[in-house]
């Protein structure tokens, strides 16, 4: 290595960990796409490919006692939160071994043990839930953070404004994470909003808000840590607008006629995984054998998850109405 090497990472081990986390999400979802094409997974499927730096960077700053909510594009969030890849895939297969016994599917992953509150298919539906969870924490005097991920499409919903208003008014411990990938299905942000600077909308509710390069996992983590620390210290809600891009179609049923191939190609150049990997390699902090090992381990995890899901048992339809009412007796 010569003296012209790229800048070194202060904590290369942690940077390699983040790289691995992003790759886990990427490889799991590439497998989902393949399984979907083979009709092993049915229903809707929305992948997060291209946006991995967002959930990875934010999630790295959360504690086990915190809560997380996400949208229907939430496989990566669930995985990073600690839900096993096997339980996620089995859920998509409709198998009992899934995190919701196969009753939720791709859009409704949920896991009480890791305080992962979905998996919300309704655009902006997670925001009022996040505000409720944070209100409960505030009333109980618990120092926990509720991180709520949602797309920029949520900004057009009344729930977004009601939730931000109450969170600010009551100074609730919520971290709002807007995954601004510029499109809500086929509608470009500039075609639906008069003000496209989303952080400004949050600032209008007196919520500290800033925009972050959502393709740079270290930038996301740094911003999220600042925000999470402030929320946990009693600083009220904070808001991050994470500027990102989905590399794939909205869902598996989207012919993608609303955006230019050239635009997609431009964003592909900013792939968050390639970006971090090359920077680490250039700094001499990721050897080929390290990268090979990361890939091998991640591929093995995904393969084990597929085997687990395949070996599962379909949730029987004759029990369909079970759990409509809670089986737990009231305290
Ligand atoms: C209340 C509501 N309206 C409409 C829909 C249909 N719908 C599903 S996804 C989507 C676009 C949401 O885009 P965005 O919030 O930017 O998230 P992204 O898919 O880009 O991650 C819409 C309109 C819905 N699920 N819920
Ligand atoms: Mg969007």
UniProtKB/TrEMBL annotation:
Domain named Dehydrogenase E1 component: residues: 21-312
MF terms from GO for this chain are:
magnesium ion binding; pyruvate dehydrogenase (acetyl-transferring) activity
Signal peptide range: none
* CDD domains associated with the record: TPP_E1_PDC_ADC_BCADC
Cofactor(s) listed in the protein's UniProt record = thiamine diphosphate
Question: What role is this protein assigned?
Answer: The pyruvate dehydrogenase complex catalyzes the overall conversion of pyruvate to acetyl-CoA and CO(2).
Known partners and oligomeric status: Heterodimer of an alpha and a beta chain.
The entry's protein name is Pyruvate dehydrogenase E1 component subunit alpha
Which gene is this protein's source? pdhA
